[in-house]
Amino acid sequence: MDGMSAAPTTPAAPDGRGVVRRIVHVDMDAFYASVEVRDRPELRGLPVAVAHDSRRGVVLTASYEARTYGVRSAMPTRMAQARCPHLILVPPRMDVYRQVSERIRAVFARYTDLVEPLSLDEAYLDVTDPREGPRSGTLIARAVKADILRETGLTASAGVSHTKFLAKVASDLHKPDGLTVIRPEEAQAVIDALPIAAFHGVGPATARRMAEHGIRTGADLRAQTLADLRAWFGAHGEHYHRVSRGVDERPVAPDRERKSVGVERTFETDLRTLSEVRAALPALAAALAVRAARAGYAGRSVVLKLKFADHSVVTRRTGGAPPAPDAAQFEALGAALLTPQLLAGRRVRLVGLSVTGHVPDTRTEPLQPRLFPLP
After folding, report:
1. By the number of CB atoms within 10 A of the CB, which of 183, 211, 334, 352 ranks highest?
2. For residue 226, what are the domain limits?
3. Would you say 121 is a known binding-site residue?
4. Domain UmuC spans what residues (predicted)?
5. Does the pLDDT of residue 68 top 90, yes or no?
6. Both 286 and 351 in a single domain?
7. Domain tally for the chain?
8. Active site residue 264
9. Does residue 228 have a known ligand-binding role?
10. How far apart are CA 236 and CA 219, in angstroms?
């Protein structure tokens, strides 16, 4: 990224030897939809959504042409079709996406052993000490993108910086097929200009709460004291204080094992009745289905989480057979866990759904099972 002003107050995130890290975040562009368009060239340039064509179906991925109509991931299929009447629905082929993902992971492994998977189509790479090629995060990111395109026919966007947070921000700035670098001396200016919703962990409800305190950008967030952020946002306040100053020392963790996949929603107005809480489940279940699919994650149990107005928390989980990884099943199981006794007249501030207890997926034979294990 050119033309950014220097910001010497932002630390350069050295590793344990005092070397400034080179972190690359790679994010495939509209991955599932792009695989379908690659395999069916007649779809090129048309609005495509990967989704089951059913009353309860949700969009897993939308092509960029579909996104211009407001079609988004986790959107109910019927709503997507209402926004784009000529939307082409393609059923997901998870076995194909896993096979393509393994080929992409093999590309990563050529350059570094330090690869942290986030989903089938997204990963962090620490290329501070690359296995081959130049000692330049930018040149390695360019080579990774070129290898992926040549070997899979798909484009990826990449971000390069000295922290995981900034590498992720960079990869989002110029999609699709982008390559963006945020250097240490540019970092604070980039952070200051970010809308608050671009910060990890800031959902719509938190963004609205921040707006009530005059926080709409990274610069606004950085202007707040740690004491105020803790008072307003509890334990999350310290994270917001650090990340607004470019402090992110999290390592790229190749052995990180995903123990669960979940989604939560905090409500501006507390929910008071069982029916109000139940009405929140369809959207959460749809989002959970998309997140679990992207992560390649199947679990043994569905967990319902409720946080009450007094900040107390209760969770309930299913037993028995592993749930089918779809929105309708997640919603039904969440609703079954929701009982009048669970609320006991208390007001609900947050509702969460997650799937936990990873079940290895054996439906396809991975090409390189030890290079880059599924989360």
Report:
1. 334
2. 200-243
3. yes
4. 23-203
5. yes
6. yes
7. 3
8. no
9. no
10. 18
